Amino acid sequence: MSMTESVGAAPAPPAPSDAILQVEHVSKSFGPVLALRDVNLYLRRGEVLGLVGDNGAGKSTLCKIICGFHRPDSGTIRLEGKEIHLRSVQDARRHGIDTVYQDLALVPQLPIYSNLFLGREATLGGPLRLLARSRMRKVAEDYLQAIKVSVPSVNADVETLSGGQRQAVAVARATRSQVKVLLLDEPLAAMGARESALIIDLIKDLAAKGQSMIVVDHNYTHLFQLCDRLAILQEGVITFDRLVADTSLQELTEYMVNEYRRQVDTGRGERADGAGSH
Fold first, then answer.
1. What are phi and psi of 118, to 5 degrees?
2. pLDDT for residue 6
3. Of 99, 90, 278, whose CA–CA distance to 187 is shortest?
4. Dihedrals phi, psi of 239, to nearest 5 degrees
5. In what order do the strands lie in the sheet with 212-216?
6. DSSP string spanning 32-49?
7. Which of 159, 216, 146, 150 is nearest to 187 (CA)?
8. Which of 42, 127, 154, 161 is the most exposed place for a label (fewest CB within 10 A)?
9. Residue 197 burial by CB count (10 A; 0-12/13-18/19+): exposed, middle or buried?
């Protein structure tokens, strides 16, 4: 079927044996608004999956369910084949699911090494529990070097870094804690070509090491640079799921334009996403 055809919900894709995350028949309503109506999605180990959709399609709601911020009304989430029930963002992190948002949640006035350990600081023994700063600096240096992130010094305050370096530090903080699934919200937003290349290389290197990621981005060019596979979410349901190698930027653009026209013609247009504008 051509991507230019208007389609309804895609059949539930069979989860491959190397799937690390499975979302099965997930629905979510906010009062009268049906944000997600029957979402089926999977993520392979070491795969970068791009999540595509217009404003109001349900992307934010789906991501917030995966990261524990919202609970689904129905459906199942499986991690490494085991069903999990996420009760909070902290609970999701304990399971190995984390998110890097556009605002990065870094503390600009603190050095890089402190941000990498934020909320998980290493301490020295004794009743006062002093911060083990030397140990944290060493671990930060070794880890940033291992994932090929170049910074002036781990002692440099985050506010002195470029946008691309800050994004890299935010990603490094999430992946340092052995995260299994990482969600990235607009990771290349407002970046120039040089800084975008830094993050693209980082994401590809992490994927090559086995890190599984879901990328939400409105820029289709970014998605084709970053992702192995694309899933399109429209009106609260996955309508298309295809490998990047099997499609093109032109086909994706035509599909999204046709879907928007179909929604306008049927009087739906943009609908509210109960968790935000994604």
1. -55, 120
2. 42
3. 99
4. -105, -15
5. 97-100, 181-185, 212-216, 48-52, 229-234, 237-243
6. TEEEEEEEEEEEETT-EE
7. 216
8. 127
9. middle
Residue 128 has pLDDT above 60, yes or no: yes
Other CB atoms within a 10 A radius of the CB of residue 64 amount to: 23
Q: Residue 56: pLDDT band by 50, 70, 90 thresholds? A: confident
Binned at pLDDT 50, 70 and 90, residue 3 comes out as very low
Query: pLDDT tens, 151-197?
Result: 999 999 999 999 999 999 999 999 988 899 999 998 988 788 888 89
Q: Which domains are seen in the chain, by residue range?
A: 1-96+180-278 (3.40.50.300), 106-178 (no CATH)
Query: CA end-to-end span of the chain, whole Å?
Result: 27
What is the pairing mode between strands 74-79 and 48-52? unpaired
Residues recorded for the chain: 278
| Residue 263: partners with Cβ closer than 8 Å, 6 or more residues away | 234, 235, 269, 270
Nearest to 7 by CA among 231, 240, 221, 272: 240
What is the bridge-based pairing of β-strands 19-30 and 181-185?
Answer: unpaired
Determine contact, residues 217/187, Cβ cutoff 8 Å: yes
Q: Per the structure block, which two tokens stand in for 40?
A: 């089926």
Whole-model pTM: value is 0.86
